[in-house]
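Box 3.1 A note on notation
Throughout this textbook, protein chains are presented in two layers. The first layer is the amino acid sequence; the second is a token string describing backbone geometry. Keep the layers aligned when reading.
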Amino acid sequence: MKKWMKFLWLLPVLVVLVLGYKKPAKVACRYSPYFEQLNRALQESYPGSSHALLDLNRLDSNIAAVQQQLGNRFQLRLVAKSLPSAQLLQYLMERAQTNRLMVFSEPFIADLLDTFPADSLDILLGKPLPAAAAARLSQHKNWQTIRWLIDTDARLQEFLSLAQQKDTLLHIALEINVGLQRGGFDTPEKMTKVLQLIKAHPRHLQLHGLMGYDGHVPYVPFYIQREKAIRQAFAKTQHTYNDFVRALKPYYTPEELRKMTFNSGGSRTYFFYKDYADTMYVNDIAMGSGFLAPAQFPELADYGHQPALYLVSPVLKKIETSLLPHAEKISPLVNWWNPNLQVSYFMTGGGWPGDVVAPDGIQKNGFWDSGEKGYANLLPNQSILSSSDDSRLAVNDFVFTHPWEGDGMLCFSRLLLYRNGKITGEWTTYDGGN
């Protein structure tokens, strides 16, 4: 090998210098007062282990924010998949004064039927289930109180056969496509056939209402005026929903329609409903993630929501002068260029679906974390983070991850409860299947 080839490692450094990239400034690694308090509470009650942590004060504040936005015009429905803990759901039902749930999976429905007095729950499916799943759920008490979501003529025929076999009445909700394009009845005209079938079998089928999820509204293309386009998409969704409800009028009396559930909304759209005059029929708003304000819902901060859920892990090792495998000789140069990579922390846990948010100044190290989807070939118990040498983070201190979604708590079997500077208890998370 020629001697000059030994210096090839200098090439990227020279490129950086030539292109004039700005040298990163040193950032101190330390807690804000809020996370300092959380860290102290964890140290006192649950040292040396990783957990999901729920701030009950912030949860209560988020409940109040939702209630303020919805007012008295809409009923609130809790989305169970984003709040996967029976005890959390019970807490929310009591605080938010609702028994309405939206559930997506057969095992979770079974778990809820076995946990709660089934006749005390108003369960609407968030997606259709096969009739075979409904048959299995029929082994549970009050299973027929579920509002079964129907998206096609064929599925309604299957549920009619099940109702006839069981000689029972099934409550039906029709999934309508208000723009999301993931199934359901596309037009009021296509819904007519199932309405006729429901009306023809009153002993076995009863229409409970409609479900039209508006989850597409915030995701307008990047190349058009975003805020205006979102408002226009929401308005179009409401007009479409209104057309579907009007199509029910030949089959149901005004009194029957007033008793029906017309569900829509979500954590990214619920705040549009209160002041929109043309929302004529929607009366049931689904909410889940908004109560926890996870990382993928930053717009909720504008409506008073605060992050309430964190995934936490203590520092296992602190390496004061970081060295890179296979590149030990150039590590001082790397650390000089970016002083925020100088200290390495090896965590007890981590690598979860979320953003590391505390302490300030801690970050992933791109030389270690080279994978597009997170830690490359690293298990959660081998997670590595970095900071500058201006660090107050010590071994056994906790690092906080803000999960992208509320169901990030499913990384743990327990959910620690935090209130007023103390860990006050724990709940279990849902441990069933999908």
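Residues 20-52+307-428 form a domain with the Lyase, Ornithine Decarboxylase; Chain A, domain 1 fold (CATH 2.40.37). The mean pLDDT is 89.
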